[in-house]
Design goal:
41% of the residues lie in helices and 14% in strands. It is α/β, with parallel strands linked by helices.
Length: 248
């Protein structure tokens, strides 16, 4: 009779449970509760922390690269870029024609050419005034001027083409270079008059070489040429001046 009552009580939840029988679900006591606890070696293995978590963490823009290395790489690429740009600029400058003709500005344009007079490099005496009535290309030069040497073929061509109506008048820019300039002109077959007048570079405002002034037959400065003169361009300048009526 008592066994039946006990079984009925357990089924209805009114009787005392067997020792340890209710501890599996919510009781803190008993061996089975210890097995369900989160602590212990297995819990440590499942934790997110530890060396593996550190390796899997984000490493920045480039995974696994230290910040210092990234900065060094950035500086390196910036240096290479600057070097490329500088090299390109140097190539452009080196490939440019240093003796190319440029029409410059001068207060002498449209004015009477300042007088030039002095001993000739090959002897005698020359002055700009003695060539009035002809076109005169007053050409300042020196042997140490590389563009001056580069323009020499153009000066020779101009002199041959205009042997009757024009003259090239070479003016020594550097008084200490007179002897060398005399030898250079003779070696190149430049048999036009060359004069040593130390005041001419100043009166013409020459600041660099080569520099040339195209003087009309009437003595008017019609063009100032910075850089090497070209025979074809000189022909155009002469024709334009005649068309404008300023050649006389």
């Amino acid at each position: 009779m008592s066994e039946a009552v006990g079984r009925s009580a357990v089924a209805s939840g009114e009787a005392e449970p067997y020792p340890g029988a209710g501890t599996l679900g919510d009781g803190p006591a008993g061996p089975s509760a210890e097995l369900a606890a989160p602590a212990g070696p297995s819990a440590e293995l499942a934790a997110p922390a530890g060396p593996s978590a550190e390796l899997a963490g984000p490493a920045g823009p480039e995974e696994g690269v230290l910040p210092g290395h990234r900065r060094s790489r950035t500086v390196l690429w910036a240096s290479v870029s600057v070097a490329v740009v500088v090299a390109a600029l140097v190539a452009v400058i080196a490939s440019a024609q240093p003796s190319s003709e440029v029409l410059g500005k001068s207060p002498l344009l449209g004015e009477q050419a300042p007088p030039i007079s002095g001993p000739g490099l090959g002897g005698g005496h020359y002055s700009l005034a003695q060539f009035k009535g002809k076109w005169a290309l007053v050409n300042f030069m020196a042997t140490w001027c590389v563009p001056c040497r580069e323009e020499m073929p153009q000066l020779l061509e101009f002199s041959r083409q205009h042997a009757k109506d024009a003259v090239v008048l070479a003016v020594a820019y550097d008084p200490s270079n007179v002897a060398q300039l005399r030898e250079y002109l003779a070696a190149e077959g430049a048999h036009w008059p060359a004069v040593n007048d130390p005041t001419a570079p100043v009166s013409y405002g020459v600041q660099g070489l080569p520099s040339s002034f195209l003087v009309a037959p009437g003595g008017t400065v019609v063009a100032y040429i910075e850089g090497g003169a070209r025979a074809s361009e000189l022909d155009k300048l002469m024709a334009e001046a005649e068309a404008r009526g300023i050649a006389g």
